[in-house]
Specification:
single chain; 0% strand; 2 helices; 90% helix; 123 residues; mainly alpha
């Protein structure tokens, strides 16, 4: 078996070319799989972001609705507080007013009694 130098060189070049081609194919498959994996992760992250944005929008809408209800409740409370002194009298105020009325009645009764005593024989 006579192998010349050119044949050895060609065999080595062919062998290294085949190894290089196989390595390149293997690396390209790995690269494609990594790209697929990263793309699926990006899609999952985007779906998660969309879900978070939707949840935040719902919370903002609910917050504005609750804020409106709170403002309406505050208005009703202020109206109720404004009407409270008109509709209700405190115990102390009632007692004071009752005392004034009773003293006026006592004064009127005293005048009536004095009038009757002065003109007692005319009746």
């Amino acid at each position: 078996m006579n192998v010349t130098l050119w044949q050895v060189v060609l065999i080595l070049i062919s062998f290294f070319g085949a190894v290089f081609t196989g390595a390149k194919l293997l690396l390209s498959q790995m690269d494609r799989r990594l790209d697929d994996r990263f793309n699926s992760l990006k899609e999952a992250a985007k779906a998660g972001d969309d879900a978070i944005h939707e949840t935040l929008k719902q919370h903002i809408n609910e917050e504005s609705k609750n804020s409106g209800q709170l403002i309406e409740l505050e208005r009703q409370l202020l109206k109720w507080e404004a009407r409270l002194p008109i509709d209700y009298v405190r115990r102390e105020d009632f007692i004071r007013n009752q005392t004034v009325i009773e003293s006026k009645l006592d004064g009127l009764a005293l005048r009536l009694e004095n009038t009757q005593n002065k003109g007692g024989g005319h009746a």
